[in-house]
Amino acid sequence: MGRYLKSNNILIVLATGLLLYSCSVEKNTGLSRFYHNLTSNYNIYFNGNEAFLEGMEKIKQSYKDDYATLIPIFEYSDENAARSAVGDMERAINKASKLISLHSMTASPEMDSDKPLTDKEKEFYDRKEYNDWVDDSYLLMGKAQLLKHDYNNARITLLHNIRETHDEEMRIRSMIWLARTYTEAGNYNEAGRLLSEIDPQPLDDELQAEYYLSLADMHMRRQQYERAIPALENALDNIKGKKNKNRPAYILARLYEETGNSTLATKYYKKVLKLNPPYEMEFNARISQAGVFDVESGDVESIRKELDKLLRDDKNKEYLDQIYFAHGNLSMREGNTGEAIDYYHRSAAASTNNNNQKGRSYLMLAEHYYDKPDYHLAQMYYDSAVTFLDKQYPGYNDYNRLSSKLNELTSYLDIVSREDSLQYVASLSPSEIDNIINGIIREIEQEEREAAMPEGGRYNMGQFYENQRRFRDNIEASGKWYFYNQSALTFGRTEFRNRWGDRQLEDNWRRRNKSSTGAVGGSSEDAGQAEEEVDVTADIKSKEYYLKNLPLNDSLMAESDRKMADALFNAAQVYHEKFNDYEKAKESYTSFISRFPDNPRVPHALYNIYSICKDRDPQLAESHKERLISRHPESEYAKILSDPDYLKTRMKEANRAEEMYNSAFSLWKNGDMEAAIAICNRAPDEFPQSELLPKFMLLKAYAMGPALDEKSLKDELLRITDMYPGTDEAARASEMIAHINEKVPELKEEDEREIAVSLYDTLQTPPYRFMLVIMDKDLDINRLTFDVINYNIDNYTNENYNTRGELVDDEYISITVGTFPGIGAAMDYYKSFSPADILRNTGETEIFSFIISSSNYESLIRDKNAGRYYLFFRENYPE
What we know:
The chain is mostly helical. Helices cover 67% and strands 4% of the residues. It has a five-stranded antiparallel β-sheet with strand order 1-3-4-2-5, sandwiched between helices. Helix 8 packs antiparallel against helix 9 (188-196) and helix 17 runs antiparallel to helix 18 (355-371). It is extended, with a radius of gyration of 39 Å. The N and C termini lie far apart (117 Å). The relative contact order is 0.03.
């Protein structure tokens, strides 16, 4: 019996070995093909495809559609969402690779050479691959590589499969996925070429749907919405199952909306609702229906009721911003602008976790005010829009550029208004000034109360902007002066954030920096109850804030005139060149000429009015031309208009200057420094008006450099920065100066000392302050300040010193103690204060201290360079 079992086991082993040998990939028989196809399908490929499908589901779950934009056809287009499936795609690729390496059969089967072959047999023997699952594996691998956003390897894999497969359907599938790869990589021409080579008509429904979805996706990426629509309609006709239809149906509705076909957009939004989509899509379809509703022929009230019903539904608490936005759009299309604006404000206020929606609400307000035009309010709302909108939002770059242009324009307009108001106020009696300032402060306090949002305690910027508009309109209607600009009217977001940051509505919200603290000394100097010492000139609700800039003498009035003239001219140029608002430009140029007839830029303004009116109002243009030529005959602009050959002459001169510069540059490059310097020295005399003069000066500095010491070279470079500020050459000279300062710090100290002498005086003007400067912004301000407070409590119990700590320009910490009635008491405190003994845990941080008079303290607040004052202190206050 034992011998029988042993013999039987040997037979089983031999039979198994024979079977495995007959199923080797090197031996192509019917049995081996059956074995490898079976093993491939039900083992390796199945597991790989399951990993791919699991990854696809993860991508769908992790991707969140932004319904404010045109959502993509394929969720895997989003790189962040695709990242969630990287592990699954790796497994799919590994399984596909394993199948190909273990079960690929490329050996040809044996054939009977005596027998003629049929066409079908010829096709069979001409195959490059005899395992039917190998091309499926290449497709699976390519798809997984695409979903990993590995476009190059996906392209290589799919191209290989297109060339090698013997299955026509597989070739078409691979071409579709290769087209998707090209689309994802932005190569739309190749994607289009591939898809154009496919005839979709013979394909089954599933493959036709894949084809048309790919075609629609490509057209949508190119913003060819008119061409994407029929492709998406064809895809919908071939997609099976409601669940699979809702996304393309929603996208099709949006495409009709984008192309202005509200009837078909409405039809498809209704179709989406019948497909039982996810709630968020259902909600957005209902909202979008209101957006495309025909207010001329439809029942507006029914849409209003639908929106109000959505507002009342508790499920929609997080969508209130979108519902208000839809209400606003409906009101705007009805022509009810005031109601629309109110809804947009509500939308922005309700938007707590949807920044794109908040940005869209501000954008609608911005566009409304821009179209009026009200450039101030447009600027505020565009600024808020680009703050909240995602940078990928359609048109973001255009909105951002427009916001920047509006910022520039309104900054000039604000200067004009501000200086105008300041000059007006300066002309009034002291009692009239007090009455006006008190009125402004009351208005600001009222604005603050109205702008506070109870919900979450946030600052309602949008509502505040509208309050500002109404406030300004009331002032202008009552004929009051426009001193409110910057201080009250355009106080708003910029002024508020600059002073306070983005604050919660809470006690002590006015603290500018939570890391800043201050305390009153003596018996009340308690570390736990420190209060900030307020600089009244920086508080918009103090009288001193408004008085500090009044032009109350001739020199200040002249400076105010200069600021106003520059701003008025610059605003006119922005109107003219950046907004093509020729009427506003003409008004601003005319105002500039009228108010500042002796300004050197009057000829330029006259010339620009001539240019604006030349085709629009020839008579007005001619009068400005005559005025320019008669009153400013030596100006560049008069010569341009009076002498047709003048520009040609100037061009020749410019060309000669350029040739001369190129000659000097070549000499310098070849080492002939003296000759290069000689040419550079001639340039100012020969071409006094040339734009190349800063280049000549910089080249001269380069040529002189090897022969000069650091001090002389630095002086030469400083001449460039002084004479031609704002030019590229001045910037390059500044870089070289910084390098010299780093190399020879004594020179920088000498410069700083000279600047300090110009900024600070040696007059002993009480009161004095003691200042401690810690050159490490990351240390704990509160702890350092309390260390000083404790020192004062222990050593100056009977003195009422005020101690304040703050972070200055995000560079250093300053702690101020004071005030001291005279220099003697201040110096005694300074000499007794030892930072190393008083301050804890400062390590190797650079710390220095000094005393400072009242007048110099004001200068330091403006200059903010404590090290520069310290140099002045060491030289003028010897211990």
